[in-house]
Structure to design on (684 residues):
C-alpha cells in the first residue's frame, strides 16, 4: 500500500481546503526553504494556490521552489486534484500577497515574527470565523481535507507545541533541518512573551497568539465547526494543530495525513507525537525513487518533504482507488507542464 | 401559496450564494435608494453581508436602509437562512468596501460609471473565474440559489438589456421609480460606448463590459459552471442575467425567484420579460400587510422591493416547508433584533 494505513472510506462529497498565510517569522534568514529567499516566501502561498488551481503561476515569474530547485509540493496537490476531481478551495488566513485565483477571505492579518510579544493578534477572531465557515461547509461535504501553505510554519509549530508542553520536534523543507536557528527563535519568542515550556497548556489560543501563525487558528476553528470527519493534511505543522485541538478539549473525528518524507524524518518526531496526542496518522509514499524526473527525485533526498496538503492529497487519491503509479505519473505530467519540460 | 408557483423540489444540499459588487453608476445622484446617500451605497453590499451573516453590521454605524428608513432586504434573507439552515456564502465580485465577514474573493474590480466607455473592464475574466468556481460548487450542492447586493444595479440591468435588444423595464428601490434618470444615464452610456439598441445581441459579455456591472458576469459564469439546477434570486437585475445567459446560448436548468413587489411593479415588466426569455419565474409574498412592524410594512408601499436574494430566500423557505406566517414572524424577530426595537 502506498498510503499506510490504507484509507478505507468512501465519502460522497469530499472537499479539499488549503489554508494560506504569511508570517514575519518566515523572513528570518535560514528558517524556511519555501521560496528562493526569505523575502520571496511572502509570494509562496499565493503562487502555490495559483499552481494548484491553474497549473501556472501569476504572482511571481516562476513557480515556488526551494533554493535547491526542488519544486513546490503544490505539484503533488495539483496532480491529486486533477486525478480525483475533488473540489479545492483556498482560504486566506492572513496574506501579504494574495493569489490571483479565487479564495475565501477570513479578513485575517498576516502573522508577526514570534520574537515579538504577539505573533497572531487576531487568533480568537480567526478561530471563531473559521468555525462559522466550517459549520457552513459541513452542510455540503462529508469529508474535508485541510492542507496549508505557510512558509516558516515549522518554527511556529515548534513554538506552540513548546508552549503547550510538548517536545514537538519539527520537520523542515531543507534537507538539513536548521534546528539550531529554530530553537533560538523559539526561545527568544517565549522570552518575549514571558512564557515557559508548558505554561500555556490550558490556553491553546493564547499559545497561538504568542508563538503560532494564523493558519493554526484557522485550521483548529474549521475542525471545530466542521464537526464531522476531517483530515489534517500536513506534517509537523498539522501536529501542532492537533496539539491545539486536544488542548481545547474538542471531541472531533480528526486524523492527520502526511508524506513518508515527514513521517520518516529522523530530525522530527511525527509518529511519536500523533501517537502521544492520540489521533490516527497516515503516511503516503509517492515512490519518487522510480521517477524519471530529477526535480521530483529530490524529494527522496529530503528536499521540501511536505506542504500544500501534499500528504493529504495522496491520501485522497488512494482513498478514491488511484494507484501509486497513477499518482506518480500524474505528478510527472504536472511537473513537466508547469516547468515546460518535455 | 405564498410562493407562486409552489417550489416543489427537495434538494439534498442546497446552497445560497450572494454576489456583492459596487459600481460608479450607483453614485449618480437619484439612481439608487440602496443607501442613505449616493456615496453611502459603497457600504451597502458589505453591510448587507454582515447583517445576513451575523445580525449586526460592522462597516457602517447602522444597517443599510433607504433614505425613507425602510430596512434592507438583508433582513428577509437572514430570516430565511436562520429558518432553513441553508449555508450562505458571499462573493466579492468587485467591491470598494469589503465585508468584515468571510467571503469568496474573485479578484475582480468594482464597476465604473456606465457613462464611461467601459463599465466592467474585466467582464470576461470574472465570467471565467466564476464558471471555475461554479464547477467546484456543483460537486458539493445540488441546488444553488444566487442573490446579489449591487446598488444602482437596475440601471446597469436596463443598459445591458437595451444593448441585447430587449425593452427590459426595470424596477427600483424607490417607491417612485426614477425612470427618467435611468433612461438618461443609459442613453449617455450607449452613446459613450458607440452602441445602439440590440447592437450587441450576439456579444453579451461585451454588453456587460459596456453597460453592465460585475455581478452580471459573475452570476452568468456561475450558472455556466454549476451546470445543474440554479435559481437566480432577484428582480429585474436577475432578468438581465437571464438575457445574458440566453444570448450566450447556455443550456442550463435555471429559474428566477423574486418578491411580489417586483413581480407586480407596474413600472417594470418582470413577468413579461421572464416569459419572453423562456425561463420559469417564481414570486414570493411575505404578507407584510399583516405585519406588526412599521419598517417591514413599508415594503407594501413599494419601498426597497427586493435585493440580497430576498425573493429567492423566500423561495427557499417555502421549498423547505415553512409557511408565510413562520417566515414573516422570523423577519419581525430579525428586524427587532437588528434595529434593537423591543
Amino acid at each position: 500500500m502506498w498510503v499506510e494505513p490504507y484509507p478505507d472510506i468512501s465519502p460522497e462529497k469530499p472537499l479539499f481546503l488549503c489554508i494560506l498565510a504569511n508570517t514575519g517569522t518566515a523572513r528570518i534568514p535560514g528558517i524556511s526553504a519555501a521560496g528562493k529567499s526569505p523575502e520571496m516566501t511572502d509570494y509562496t502561498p499565493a503562487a502555490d494556490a495559483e499552481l494548484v488551481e491553474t497549473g501556472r503561476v501569476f504572482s511571481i515569474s516562476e513557480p515556488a521552489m526551494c533554493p535547491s530547485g526542488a519544486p513546490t509540493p503544490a505539484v503533488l496537490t495539483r496532480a491529486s486534484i486533477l486525478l480525483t476531481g475533488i473540489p479545492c478551495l483556498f482560504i486566506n488566513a492572513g496574506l501579504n500577497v494574495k493569489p490571483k485565483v479565487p479564495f475565501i477571505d477570513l479578513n485575517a492579518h498576516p502573522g508577526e515574527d514570534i520574537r515579538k510579544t504577539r505573533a497572531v493578534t487576531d487568533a480568537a477572531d480567526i478561530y471563531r470565523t473559521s468555525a462559522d465557515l466550517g459549520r457552513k461547509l459541513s452542510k455540503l461535504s462529508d469529508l474535508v481535507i485541510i492542507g496549508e501553505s505557510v512558509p516558516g510554519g515549522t518554527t511556529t509549530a515548534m513554538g506552540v507545541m513548546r508552549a503547550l508542553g510538548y517536545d514537538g520536534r519539527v520537520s523542515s523543507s531543507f534537507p538539513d533541518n536548521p534546528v539550531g536557528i529554530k530553537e533560538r527563535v523559539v526561545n527568544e519568542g517565549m522570552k518575549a512573551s514571558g512564557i515557559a515550556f508548558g505554561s500555556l497548556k490550558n490556553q491553546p489560543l493564547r499559545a497561538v497568539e504568542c508563538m503560532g501563525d494564523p493558519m493554526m487558528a484557522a485550521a483548529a476553528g474549521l475542525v471545530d465547526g466542521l464537526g464531522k470527519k476531517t483530515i489534517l493534511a500536513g506534517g509537523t505543522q498539522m501536529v501542532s494543530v492537533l496539539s491545539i485541538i486536544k488542548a481545547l478539549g474538542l471531541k472531533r473525528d480528526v486524523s492527520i495525513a502526511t508524506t513518508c518524507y515527514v513521517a520518516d524524518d529522523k530530525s522530527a518526531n511525527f509518529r511519536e507525537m500523533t501517537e502521544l496526542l492520540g489521533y490516527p496518522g497516515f503516511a503516503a509514499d509517492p515512490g519518487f525513487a522510480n521517477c524519471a524526473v530529477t526535480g521530483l527525485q529530490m524529494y527522496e533526498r529530503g528536499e521540501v518533504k511536505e506542504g500544500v496538503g501534499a500528504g493529504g492529497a495522496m491520501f485522497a487519491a488512494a482513498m478514491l482507488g488511484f494507484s501509486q503509479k497513477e499518482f506518480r505519473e500524474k505528478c510527472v505530467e504536472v511537473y513537466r507542464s508547469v516547468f515546460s519540460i518535455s
